[in-house]
Amino acid sequence: MTAGRTSRRSNERRPSFCTRCKIGLPNWIENPKALNRTGRLLRGAVREFTAERDMHMKPKGKRILIGLVAVAFAVVSTSAFAQDPLPSWREGPARNAIMSFVQRVTTPGGAEYVPPAERIAVFDNDGTLWGEQPMYVQLLFAIDRVKALVPKHPEWKRQEPFASVLRGDYGAALEGGEKAILQLVMATHAGMTTEEFEQAVSAWIAAARHPKTGRLYTDMVYQPMLELLACLRANGFKTFIVSGGGVEFMRPWAERVYGIPPEQVIGSSIKTKYEMRGGKPVLVRMPEIDFIDDKAGKPVGIHKFIGRRPIAAFGNSDGDLQMLQWTAAGAGPRFMLLVHHTDAGREWAYDRKSHVGRLDEALDEAAARGWTVVDMKKDWKVVYPSGK
Questions:
Q1: Which of 65, 230, 257, 312 fits a disulfide with 121 by CB distance 3.0 to 4.6 angstroms?
Q2: Is residue 317's pLDDT more than 60?
Q3: Structural domains for the chain
């Protein structure tokens, strides 16, 4: 490809073109003053495509190149010239590490370049993308479901952990640990069709509010992480949620809130079975655990449902440790990040001794391995989206 030349008879700059096929290219591809970093990457991609000087393009090849240029121009004209992809992040080691990694793996011809198909990034949800204190949001949903369903289950008034929930003594209800939580979830999440459950989740998430902040739970997502998700996708990454929460609890709202479609949400699940009801096929949720997507289950879920090892993983607790370890163990460039909750004023401060989102072993391993740790108080200008 030859650079556009300035004519002696005119100050107008002629468009660049492929010397073999005479396909005109917009001047911005060769005009570095009009480009930011993303524009330069697109220019590099076009050059890579046409680097074979001795290849005579067939009509199909010409159409592909024209399409590439059109897409590149559309991307640059809409988002590539954004001055700051992470405006809610303060300058510092965490932000710099993110931007450096993205630049390295997306620079064509660079030593650490990663093809777009392999740019997989996985995110925990609770405590990483939205708040998780004083207890997990899905557990609060289950508690509200117990209260709503008690007329159909009067025996719950005498049975634990339901009796304590109905008295408002949540501490006593959860003294049974994971067993008690599973009891609550199984009793309130099963026995209905998948469509009925989705409707129940959607209605609850649209109205329920956090007991401390008074916000909708979907307004308690972290603005800096929303920007990070958008930045990665703008640079060719495919973003997945990999959470210990219920997959069917997250899917009804994840795309609207995070821009992550249902098929890119991985979570814990209960068994379902196919039935005909009233002549209509339905999937019925059963009171049996199918898969727990937490701790060692996260790498298993990634392998089972994604089929590629991620090159970037984001979490906030020991429940995410194995996911970060699995990601770090792959070949080539890797990026691991932990969100450390240090902001008692704007959110909560907790780590090693917390009953929710405990960050202990993973924090030590991050220090030993050089993983990026975000100090929420120091690294984030804001926590939640403004105006909400």
A1: 312
A2: yes
A3: 1-83 (no CATH), 120-133+215-379 (3.40.50.1000)
